[in-house]
Amino acid sequence: MPAGHALVGRRAPLAIQVKDCVLKYPIGAHARGSLKSAVMGLFGHRERTPTAQYVDALRGINLQIQQGERVALIGHNGSGKSTLLRAMAGVYPLASGDIHVSGRIGTLLELGVGFEDEATGRENIYYRGMAMGYSRKLLAKHEREIVEFCGLGDFIDLPVRTYSAGMYVRLAFAISTQFSPEVLLVDEVFGAGDAVFAERAVQRMMRIVNDAGIFVLATHDVNLVSRVCSRAVWLSSGHILADGPVETVIPEFTARMSGR
Fold first, then answer.
1. In sequence order, which ranges of 154-194 are alpha helices (DSSP H)?
2. Nearest Cα to 232, choosing from 180, 78, 224?
């Protein structure tokens, strides 16, 4: 578990608490040295190790999300919305601050994570599911439901390397949401799926929230935000510009993006 991130026991009310969150990305030459210095080192040359440089991806973020909330993280590319989502999931370590998440987390962040390209979609139900912490016995019990929900037909028994991006989305989403996680974190993925599946996915997300969960979505799709979420957090350059009801924040965001 990365420093600065904690999963609180299920006894606590479902919540996400982000306090003074700072996250830095390394840029340029890393402290390990450049490729040039590594090659020259083979010939006995030694260059001074460059000082690592960082850019602040998140700058003192404070945020609280409570049980039953459907929250959208919005902003232009590089605003920090996907970075914040991954920090909540414990994927990215913090430079300082804390993130506490209570409840069982389900994520849909990277389409290929937990997939074996040469294995079939059916086999990958087990690979990805076990990577998420579910037992083979539980996955076997739910295999048919996962196969039916993703709707891949005979493709379920073909290697996933033959899948389109949309097929990846459908299989990954079906596995990630089969067991109704208490906290569902989703990054921009539905653009790769077809309209019929997207509708089914929205209905499943709503069911998870209606089961007293938390849903956090990082996206550019303001129409999806208006339909699914009740709260929007607008990020820019690692800061929160606005945080409030969707009907208030989204018009301000779209006006700014259109230059009005």
1. 165-177
2. 224
Amino acid at 86: R
3-state class (DSSP) for residue 66: strand
Task: Report d(CA 58, CA 62) in Å as an integer.
Answer: 10
* Pairwise pLDDT comparison (157 vs 49), residue with the higher score: 157
Q: Quick one: which of 99, 108, 137, 117 has its CA closest to 6?
A: 99
The DSSP output letter for 94 is P
Q: Does residue 21 contact residue 60 with C-beta atoms inside 8 Å?
A: yes
Closest CA to 16 of 179, 180, 212, 214: 214
**pLDDT, tens digit (0-9, with 9 covering 90-100), for 114-125:** 789 999 999 999
Give phi and psi for 23, each to the nearest 5: -135, 130
Q: pLDDT confidence of 177, banded at 50, 70, 90?
A: confident
Give me the count of residues in the chain: 260
What does pTM read for this prediction?
Answer: 0.77
Quote the CA–CA distance of 15 and 24 in Å, as a whole number.
Answer: 25
Q: What is the dihedral of CA 95, 98, 102, 104, to 10 degrees?
A: 0
What per-residue confidence (pLDDT) applies to 10? Answer: 46
Structure tokens at 167: 């097929």
Distance of CA 42 to the CA centre of its chain: 40
Helices then strands, counting H and E runs in the chain, come out as 8, 10
